[in-house]
Write a structure and sequence with these properties.
Shape: elongated
CATH architecture: Orthogonal Bundle
Strand content: under 5%
Mean pLDDT: 89
Number of domains: 1
Radius of gyration: 18 Å
Number of strands: 0
Largest sheet: none
CATH class: Mainly Alpha
Structural class: mainly alpha
């Protein structure tokens, strides 16, 4: 993951990657068949690790809003060239040329985040912490916003840092989810 993030997949050869991880390029191709499969498998491994962190954060005995803030903090990149986000950028970039089974595997990774967000929104509304929203539609829009901000952060566009993005997101969630009355 670190090597892909540092070099980008296009500039990375299987021989170079093999040297970094102590394997021959032939062994890498035997196990992964292609650089695209290697990329997707690396992303799946990364998301499995992050998914465990997300499940732990979402099961904490705190308010739904605090868990929602933890979700957002886990979702967004930590810094410019965040390795897990760099993997996502590489996968999104290659998605147009990917076959349907590959895109379906990618979608399943994205849907794990979506389902957790929908569940949080529904729980918050049922407990009266949030106003009533269509949880699925709200989750789609929120993830799109997070993806946009996340992309800006990971590529290092000037004008926004992680703290500012978290502030924008909190302001949006406060304005959109505060119960009426």
């Amino acid at each position: 993951m670190r090597t892909i993030a540092e070099h980008g997949l296009a500039a990375l050869t299987m021989a170079q990657l093999g040297r970094e991880v102590g394997m021959s390029s032939g062994h890498l191709l035997y196990y992964f068949r292609s650089k695209d499969e290697l990329l997707l498998q690396t992303l799946m491994w990364s998301e499995e690790q992050l998914g465990a962190e997300r499940r732990a954060a979402l099961s904490r005995p705190v308010s739904v809003r605090e868990r929602l803030d933890a979700f957002v903090e886990l979702y967004l990149p930590d810094a410019v060239r965040d390795p897990r986000w760099t993997l996502w950028l590489e996968v999104w970039n290659r998605s147009q040329a990917a076959d349907e089974p590959t895109r379906a595997r990618q979608l399943e990774l994205e849907l794990a985040w979506h389902r957790d967000l929908v569940a949080l929104l529904a729980e918050g509304a049922s407990r009266g912490e949030f106003g009533a929203v269509d949880a699925d539609r709200f989750a789609v829009r929120t993830r799109a916003m997070l993806d946009g901000f996340g992309t800006h952060l990971v590529v290092g566009l000037p004008g926004l840092d992680r703290a500012a993005v978290l502030g924008h997101v909190r302001e949006y969630l406060d304005g959109s989810l505060t119960p009426a009355g």
